[in-house]
Amino acid sequence: MSSSVASGSQDWKQKPLQRGRSSPTNNKGDKPTKLATDRLLLREFVEDDWRAVLAYQSEAQYLKYSPWTHRTTEEVQDFVRGFIEWQGERPRIKYRLAITLRVEGRLIGNCGIRLESADSRQANIGYEIAPGYWGEGYASEAVRAMVAFGFGELRLHRIWARCVAENVASYRVLEKVGMRREERLREEEWMKGRWWDILVYGILDYEWRSQA
Which CATH superfamily is domain 10-16+34-211 in? Predict the structure, then answer.
């Protein structure tokens, strides 16, 4: 039985931060980020994606470990629009890609990586999969591609993630891609009227290479 595979950190579920800092003159010639796996294509968000996101973010199973109790059209449109604005930021330090099925093109979730600063060699990841696609290994496949992107293209030294301790499926995804549990923060996040323990996972560049 599967439980929610939600964002690696509650912060990923909030409205995207530091918006409106794009530099159009630096965007010319830049190609959209795409990551392909055996079954998935992780691509940049487009505005029409909000409908698919709203559909799965409205499901009770998804909302269980989310800070939200429900989602509205306006909220999700803003959610997606924020990720689109990240695409124009220069230097770009935040990536959030739509997870789509390669054969059907259907959007089933999202996965991202966010550097701490432009000159940082550390970043955190977040991810979520529509409940109808839990238990198929899609989250692990997407996260593995994003971690490879971080250590390869972005030349990071450390990648980390946070998840609610009760969200077993989420931390199993992190363990499947080789991340180690680094600490448990007791009652670290206040959400839905109670405190939640948070797990922190991490992996270093040479640990990742040793798995290849």
Answer: Gcn5-related N-acetyltransferase (GNAT) (3.40.630.30)
* Straight-line distance from the first to the last Cα atom of the chain, in angstroms, rounded to the nearest whole number: 30
Domain regions of the chain by residue span = 10-16+34-211
Beta strands in 58-141 (DSSP E): 94-101, 107-115, 122-129
Q: pTM of whole model > 0.85?
A: yes
Residue 35's DSSP bridge partners are 42
Separation CA 90–CA 107 (nearest Å):
27
Question: What does the DSSP assignment read for 107-123?
Answer: EEEEEEEEESSTT-SEE
Rounded to an integer, what distance in angstroms lies between the CA atom of residue 202 and that of residue 196?
20
Q: To which H or E segment does residue 184 belong?
A: strand 180-191
Per-residue model confidence as pLDDT tens digits over 49-104: 999 999 999 999 999 999 999 999 999 999 999 999 999 999 999 999 999 999 99
